[in-house]
């Protein structure tokens, strides 16, 4: 879970100032948490307290209304609209990481990921993006190899995971759709050699850097089983007490 949050914070300064390189500062004075972190923690809150996804996502929006949400999500959450709005944006995929850590079976992950997405992002691609990231986190956490994960994701969701980041980096631009970002975040994880490398690869693609790194970070934490302590300290120092409390409770229950 911290893997996703670290990715979000590191990527935050590059979202609208893309850097097509692996050589960049991981943290700057401007590095901050965004909606990716807020809603990842909201997902953890749902899993800890058995509350409805829609209510919790909307509650967290009202607690942190300036975190940089997409326009459609902000209108939905601000108005406490009950119906989803048909989105295929990557918001469903960036917030799903805790599902992959908390569920006991792959089938349960896929069902809970779909549930978490459908309250807002009920387009099939929005649901598939959440399911793909949730599945990759769960499989990584439970010892699956990268080839096995890639084969499952490709077969289940039809994502093309064969494009190397070196080839994608040349042409990739801002794309907030699940189908235009989730496969590349997964590829960043697949090409990585450790947690930090996964974050650097995701940011180096360009585009929606904080969300790409958030998704890749969730998978990398699950797979590599460790995060450099300095990155944890830097990220946690940028979070308010209530978010840190939920994170701590989630680790104690599901990742202890």
UniProtKB/TrEMBL annotation:
The keyword Translocase does not apply. Its cofactor is Mg(2+). Keywords: Magnesium, Metal-binding. The keyword Magnesium applies. Binds 2 magnesium ions per subunit. One of its GO terms (molecular function) is metal ion binding. Mg(2+) binds at residues 34-36, 208, 210-211. This is ADP-ribosylation/Crystallin J1. It comes from Dethiobacter alkaliphilus AHT 1.
């Amino acid at each position: 879970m911290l893997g996703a949050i670290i990715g979000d914070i590191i990527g935050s300064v590059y979202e609208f100032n893309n850097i097509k390189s692996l050589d960049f500062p991981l943290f700057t004075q401007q590095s901050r948490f965004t909606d990716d972190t807020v809603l990842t923690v909201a997902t953890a809150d749902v899993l800890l307290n058995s509350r409805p996804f829609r209510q919790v996502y909307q509650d967290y929006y009202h607690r942190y209304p300036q975190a940089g949400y997409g326009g459609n999500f902000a209108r939905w959450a601000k108005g406490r609209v009950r119906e989803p709005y048909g989105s295929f944006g990557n918001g469903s995929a960036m917030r799903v990481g805790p599902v992959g850590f908390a569920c006991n079976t792959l089938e349960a992950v896929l069902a809970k990921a779909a549930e978490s997405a459908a309250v807002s992002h009920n387009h099939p691609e929005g649901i598939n993006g959440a399911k793909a990231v949730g599945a990759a986190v769960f499989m990584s956490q439970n010892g699956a190899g990268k080839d096995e994960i890639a084969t499952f994701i490709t077969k289940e969701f039809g994502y093309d995971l064969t494009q190397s980041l070196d080839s994608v980096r040349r042409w990739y631009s801002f794309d907030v759709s699940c189908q235009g970002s989730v496969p590349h975040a997964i590829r960043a994880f697949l090409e990585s050699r450790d947690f930090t490398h996964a974050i650097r690869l995701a940011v180096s693609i360009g585009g929606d850097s904080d969300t790409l790194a958030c998704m890749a970070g969730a998978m990398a934490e699950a797979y590599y089983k460790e995060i450099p302590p300095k990155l944890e300290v830097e990220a946690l120092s940028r979070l308010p007490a209530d978010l840190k409390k939920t994170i701590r409770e989630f680790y104690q229950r599901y990742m202890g």
